[in-house]
Design goal:
With 57 residues, the protein is mainly alpha-helical. It has a domain of 39 residues. It contains 2 helices and no strands. The model has no long low-confidence stretch (mean pLDDT 79).
């Protein structure tokens, strides 16, 4: 979907990179035990919840 294979073919595989993902689909990710391991091993570095879009700039 994002053509990641093209990046891999050019040697870009994400090693040593920090990637930001902006998504509105994981409510309460910081307290959901499903994601606990990702926080523990440093795969999720932080979250931010914003109730009102106009205040979240």
């Amino acid at each position: 979907m994002m053509n990641g294979h093209l990046l891999h073919q050019n040697g870009l595989k994400g090693a040593g990179m920090t990637v930001a993902i902006l998504d509105a689909g994981f409510s309460k990710v910081d307290v959901n035990p499903v994601f606990a391991q990702h926080f523990a091993n440093g795969q999720i570095l932080g979250t931010r919840f914003c109730r009102f879009r106009r205040l979240c700039l």
